């Protein structure tokens, strides 16, 4: 390749080229376009770049370059119009001092280049920019109004994830070319300009999320007729939703108002968002009933209105208004009534979350959510039998019916090819024996049948569940969600071949939508009791957690020794039953277990000493049984206190014996004075140790508090998140008290 001296364009993006190829590029003196982005290049930027003085477009982005790179080394590149130097890992330090491009830049990308301070000085002398990306740096200052004035043809401005602050000031004149603006993850504050929609009429993509904006959405926003994506999430906006937005911005495909303080009616009866595909309104204060304004959005794919104060019944028309709907989340509201059968019509629905509402009545047997992968109906007042159709689905991954009042038995008609991984039925009134058919669920990772009325014995066939024997990751073949690298490839995928703004925007317009889609998948939260408390797992963490919870039932008989074959299980809770017999020695094969609770049963015999081989065991509870003998004192068992063994009168715990042995007086009267003196010294040392412990604990506590205060004082973004979390906790407690305490 390097012998092709007349070569003027080289595109090697997304390959696995290394440094040897780069060093020989010095011979290609006529090269005009060089794109070696998205490879595995590392080390310092090659000095040979300074020899390629004919370059017009240079893309070295998304590699692993490191070290210092002064832009002054490009001083002889008089034809350079496009420069992209962004890195993957913030390892490149670009110096902008003493560099004034001899040509007018059109495309400039310096993402993750460790720029700090104010804007680079050379930008003051640029007048033909069409694309500028300074994202993921450490830049400070106000919004660059001067940049829009100096570059009237600027089409894309990306300032994401810096430390910019101040209010958003726009030029007085209308900007006819800017169609992509991303200033998210900064510290901008104040209200949006009242004439924003007039100045930026051509905007197609606007992301100002994760800032400190407040107030209402300007009425002029309705003038942005071409706006396709609007993301205002994670700010302090308040008031009602402007009618001009839902009627004037008819090109909107993604609208994100989540994590703000919006209030009032959820949607009016008239909307003109016919192209809307993604709608995120979660974590606000919208109230009232769900009106049929959404009926015009027939292409809606994602609807998330969770954690608001919506009331009334779930409208039946929601099953008909969009055949493309894939994600429907209405959790944490005040919705009443039953689950409408019309949801059967949503043939592409993957996620249905109506948890933590006031739904009641039985689930209709005709409800056939054949396409749903994650179904969450927990913490309602649903009753009756669990429809067998749910267990016959081959696509269902999560079935969460916790904390309702379902009764009867678990259906026996279970699909042998089921993909069910999370079966959460705890906190109901289910009864009868645990069906052996559950053992057919080979991908089952977490099963919670606690706090019911199940009787009979524990099925030995649980040992056949593949995920509990070899691990959930192995069964799923390591399937993962979209990776950040994939998003980066989508973001910059078109720059190498076609630098036109329309093509670039065509690739970017759905970037946030893809990120939101991945975020929705990660927000499929699985709550499971681990280590004596409920933990919430989502995203990739879910693939690593396995557990079985049969606590608080009426199970009898012995614990099957086959349970010891569940070598990949992390949590096993059999407490609060009437199990008898001894603890199986096969439990020593539970190599990965972290939490084992078999308290409040009728177990007898000794604690098998083989259990000391459980190196990851951090919670062990056998209290209130009829165990006898000596407790193990090696490995992890040396860390367990008396609470793990109490309620077993015949059990001789080594730590209890050790604790009281020193208080017993010797049986002989020939104890030497030296021995008595040694015991007194030990007691003194013990007292000193306790004083030191208390002092160090107090000092550490004060230090942590001071560090936390300092961080919140310095970083306004974290301070905002802190107070937002406190406010959300207060609202959650108030809602819980009003729903479960005051209403009774």
UniProtKB/TrEMBL annotation:
Residues 666-686 are annotated as: Disordered. Keywords: Cell membrane, Glycoprotein, Leucine-rich repeat, Membrane, Receptor, Repeat, Signal, Transmembrane, Transmembrane helix. Pfam families: LRR_1 (PF00560), LRR_8 (PF13855). It is a single-pass type I membrane protein. Residues 674-686 have a biased composition (Acidic residues). It is found in: Cell membrane. Its main location: membrane. The keyword Electron transport does not apply. InterPro entries: Leu-rich_rpt (IPR001611), Leu-rich_rpt_typical-subtyp (IPR003591), LRR_dom_sf (IPR032675). The chain crosses the membrane at residues 693-714. This is Leucine-rich repeat-containing N-terminal plant-type domain-containing protein.
